[in-house]
Write a structure and sequence with these properties.
about 300 residues; alpha/beta; Rossmann fold; about 15% strand; globular; binds phosphoric acid mono(formamide)ester; binds norvaline
């Protein structure tokens, strides 16, 4: 155990300056990748990825990113490891962290990853919990900056469930000083404490999703039912019917507004095909940028600050 270790368990584990560094570093790393320039700073380093929920992008972006940087990644899941048979998370952390250099975990309650981190000898990265998805928001804001410049002072509109993505947007808004307009159906409102917020200055709640979209520089949404909440699916389909991001909502946003979705998406539920496949959507850049942003994060957590 070590308290000096740097983990990334929620967005506010980084400060404003570190986030700015990571965005610049992600830009440089992406540029090298696009130029086919070999870059192997993580030679002989091993990432262990633990998945207690399904994934396409998170697994792929971490594994490809580690390989591209000269390291390797090992995939563990609950189904065929002892984690699924009740081995205490603290014991798993002690053992796993003796055999690798860094760990990424996708799991259920945030408490699980916090406990793992307390018993880990190496940095731990949150690859999604019920409460947060910090790697995704790192990539999303990097994508916004690539397309539109600094996010400070801008308005991001969140439509739909007050889930892990929404909570992380709210944390990022406090750290990076932008505003979030949130519109959720009744009964699915945000819980500032669960989101880990300091105050209410950086978000505003709207009953009407159209009102929330007015003037937004970025409109974003996510599935109505997150992983782990499948039993609520039918009730959610009814409750969320009016929280589908459509062309009318995009029309009241800023003319330069972007659309983002962390994916996977359900066309016709939380977003229309016209919006997600339309000209304002940057979802494919957003998905690709998971890899570039996480490469910068892995490099930073393992090697500290590099580059210029
Ligand atoms: N956005 C995201 O985390 O995707 P996966 O569930 O495919 O990893
Ligand atoms: N909120 C979604 C995000 C998936 C990447 C979930 O937790 O299932």
């Amino acid at each position: 155990m070590s308290s000096a270790l740097k983990h990334f368990l929620q967005f506010k584990d980084l400060d404003q300056e570190e986030v700015a560094y990571l965005f610049e570093r992600a830009r440089q790393i992406k540029q090298m990748f696009k130029a086919y320039k070999p870059y192997h700073p993580l030679l002989d380093r091993t990432l262990v990825m633990i998945f207690e929920k399904a994934s396409t992008r998170t697994r792929l972006s971490f594994e490809a990113g580690m390989t591209q940087m000269g390291g390797s990644a090992i995939y563990l899941n609950t189904r065929d490891s002892q984690l699924g048979r009740g081995e205490p998370v603290e014991d798993a952390a002690e053992v796993i962290s003796r055999m690798c250099d860094i760990v990424m975990i996708r799991t259920f309650e945030q408490d699980i990853i916090e406990r793992f981190a307390r018993h880990s000898r190496v940095p731990v990265i949150n690859g999604l919990t019920n409460e947060y998805h910090p790697c995704q928001i790192l990539a999303d804001i990097f994508t916004f900056i690539e397309h539109r410049g600094p996010i400070k002072g801008k308005t991001v509109t969140w439509i739909g469930d007050s889930n892990n993505m929404c909570n992380t947007w709210l944390q990022a808004a406090e750290l990076l000083d932008f505003n979030v307009h949130v519109s959720t159906p009744p009964g699915y409102e945000i819980e500032p404490e669960r989101a880990g917020l300091f105050g209410t200055a950086h978000f505003e709640e709207f009953e009407d999703p159209m009102q929330a979209c007015k003037g937004a520089h970025l409109v974003t949404t996510d599935v109505w039912t997150s992983m782990g909440f499948e039993a609520e699916n039918e009730a959610r389909k009814k409750a969320f019917a009016d929280w589908c991001v459509d062309e009318d909502m995009m029309a009241v946003a800023d003319p330069q507004a972007l659309f983002m979705h962390c994916l996977p998406a359900h066309r016709g539920e939380e977003v229309t095909a016209g919006v997600i496949d339309g000209p304002q959507s940057v979802v494919w850049d957003e998905a690709e940028n998971r890899m570039h942003a996480q490469k910068a994060l892995l490099e930073y957590l393992l090697l500290g600050r590099l580059g210029h």
